[in-house]
Design goal:
Layout (H helix, E strand, L loop, with lengths): L4 E4 L3 H12 L4 E4 L16 E2 L6 H17 L2 E3 L2 E5 L4 H10 L3 E2 L2 H7 L10 E5 L3 E3 L1 H14 L3 E3 L6 E5 L2 E6 L2 E5 L1 E4 L5 H7 L8 E11 L11 E3 L6 E5 L2 E5 L4 E2 L9 H14 L9 E9 L6 E4 L6 E5 L9 H12 L8 H7 L6
Helix pairs in contact: 1-5, 1-8, 2-8
Bound molecules: flavin-adenine dinucleotide.
Flavin-adenine dinucleotide binds next to helix 1, strand 14 and strand 19.
Length: about 350
C-alpha cells in the first residue's frame, strides 16, 4: 500500500486536508496533475477572508475557520466597503443585509477611498473583520505538514484511471499504480471527471469563470490601506495588491474545466463598471488572469464520504470560498476520513454532506 489516504488535487482543498490528516499520523499521498501546487483556481483568487460571504453553511464554515486563521499569522487587516448610487438602494440594502454590514458616513468613506466619485456614490456600508489571507504560505505550510508526516505531494502526477479492487483504490499515474484504501476527490473544477473515472455518481458540479485585471494604482496614491470595495450586486470589485490594484468584473460564466484565461471584453466591461464609481481611469493592465469557481448544485461545499461508494470521499464545491473555509473544511474532512466525530458539529457536517443529494 502506498498510503492510508490518496488525495487527488493539489489545491487548497486537497493540501489543507492532507495537512490535517498528516498531523493525525495518517500517511497521505497527494496527486497533482500540474508542475506546481495551486496552479489552477487556488493560485488565482482574491485571497480574502470575508466570513459573511455565501450561504449559511458556507458562512458557518468560514466563522469556524476564524480562530485557526487568527492564530496562524496568515491574516492581515483589509476591511470591506460596499458602495452604490441612490437609485441602487434596493440592491444595496440586500447586499448590506446579506453581508451584515454597517452603514457608513460618506465623508468617512471618501476619506478612506479618495477615488470614489462624490457625484455618484450616495450609499456606503462596510465591515472591518475582513482580512487578506497569505494564500501562498497556506499552501506551502500545508505541503510541509504533509511531508513532515511522512506523506508525499507528487507533482506532474495526473490520475488517469481509477479502480476499486479488494477494498483498495488503485489509481494509474503514468506507468505507475498508486494504492490506498481511502480516496479523496479534491480535484477542483475536474471533480466530475475524477468521480466518473472512479465510477462514482455524485452531484453534478459546475465550474464558473471569474476574471481579474491587475492595474497600476492611481498616480501618486498609496492604496495599501484601501478596503476591498464592491459595487452593488457584486457587479465589480477592486482590491489593493502589492502597490497596485486588482479589479474584477465578478462574472460567473459557466465553463468546462480547463486552464482558464480572461476575455478582454469581459475585463473591459468590468473595469468600465468600476470607473463609473471611481475617478481612477485605467489606461493599462499590468497583468490579467481568470480562474474557475466550482459550485455544487446548491452552492454549498460537499465534504465527506460518498453515501454509496466505500472509501470514496468528497472535498469539493469550494466555489468562491475555498480559502476562507479551508481550515474548518479540512478539519471536517479529516474527521470524516478518520471516522471521528466532527469537531464542527453534526448539523454543519450534515449540511455539507454528499448524502444531502440523495
Ligand atoms: C477570481 C477568483 C477570486 C477568488 N477569491 C476568493 C477569495 O477571496 N476567498 C476565497 O476563500 N476564495 C476565493 N476564490 C475561490 C478559491 O480560489 C477556490 O474556492 C479554491 O481555490 C478551490 O480550491 P480547490 O483546491 O478546490 O481547486 P484547485 O485549486 O483548482 O485545485 C484542484 C487541483 O486538482 C488538480 N487535478 C484535477 N484533476 C486531476 C487529476 N486527474 N489528477 C491529479 N490532479 C488533478 C488540478 O490540477 C488542480 O490543481 C476565488 C476564486 C477565483 C477564481
Amino acid at each position: 500500500m502506498d498510503a492510508d489516504v490518496l488525495i487527488i488535487g493539489g489545491g487548497v482543498a486537497g493540501l489543507t486536508l492532507g495537512a490535517r490528516l498528516a498531523e493525525a499520523a495518517t500517511k497521505v499521498v497527494v496527486l497533482e496533475a500540474e508542475a506546481a501546487v495551486g496552479y489552477h483556481t487556488s493560485g488565482r483568487s482574491a485571497a480574502l477572508f470575508e466570513p459573511t460571504y455565501g450561504l449559511a453553511p458556507v458562512r458557518d464554515l468560514s466563522f469556524a475557520s476564524a480562530d485557526w486563521y487568527h492564530a496562524s499569522g496568515l491574516l492581515s487587516p483589509r476591511g470591506v466597503l460596499l458602495v452604490a448610487r441612490a437609485e441602487e438602494r434596493e440592491t444595496f440594502e440586500e447586499d448590506l443585509q446579506a453581508m451584515a454590514m454597517t452603514r457608513l458616513d460618506l465623508d468617512e468613506v471618501f476619506a478612506r477611498m479618495p477615488v470614489l466619485r462624490r457625484d455618484v456614490v450616495a450609499l456606503a456600508a462596510g465591515r472591518e473583520d475582513v482580512f487578506d489571507i497569505d494564500t501562498d504560505r497556506l499552501l506551502q505550510d500545508s505541503v510541509k505538514a504533509i511531508r513532515a508526516g511522512g506523506g508525499e505531494v507528487r507533482l506532474k502526477a495526473r490520475a488517469e484511471a481509477i479502480q476499486r479492487d479488494g477494498g483498495v483504490w488503485r489509481v494509474r499515474v503514468g506507468g505507475e499504480e498508486v494504492c490506498a484504501p481511502a480516496l479523496v476527490n479534491a480535484a477542483g473544477s475536474w471533480v466530475n471527471e475524477v468521480a466518473a473515472m472512479a465510477g462514482v455518481a455524485g452531484p453534478r458540479f459546475q465550474p464558473y469563470r471569474r476574471s481579474m485585471a491587475r492595474v497600476p494604482a492611481p498616480e501618486g496614491m498609496d492604496v495599501s490601506r484601501w478596503p476591498m470595495t464592491f459595487g452593488p450586486g457584486e457587479s465589480w470589485y477592486v482590491k489593493p495588491d502589492a502597490g497596485a490594484l486588482i479589479v474584477s468584473p465578478a462574472e460567473e460564466h459557466p465553463m468546462e474545466p480547463h486552464d482558464a484565461w480572461p476575455e478582454d471584453m469581459v475585463l473591459a466591461e468590468g473595469i468600465a463598471r468600476f470607473e463609473d464609481y471611481a475617478d481612477a481611469p485605467v489606461t493599462r493592465l499590468l497583468s490579467s488572469w481568470a480562474g474557475l469557481r466550482t459550485f455544487s448544485p446548491d452552492r454549498v461545499l460537499v465534504i465527506g464520504p460518498d453515501p454509496v461508494a466505500p472509501g470514496f470521499f468528497w472535498q469539493a464545491g469550494q466555489g468562491g470560498y475555498g480559502f476562507q473555509t479551508a481550515p474548518a473544511a479540512a478539519r471536517l474532512g479529516a474527521d470524516l476520513v478518520l471516522g471521528r466525530a466532527p469537531e464542527v458539529g453534526a448539523a454543519l457536517a450534515a449540511a455539507v454532506s454528499p448524502a444531502r443529494f440523495g
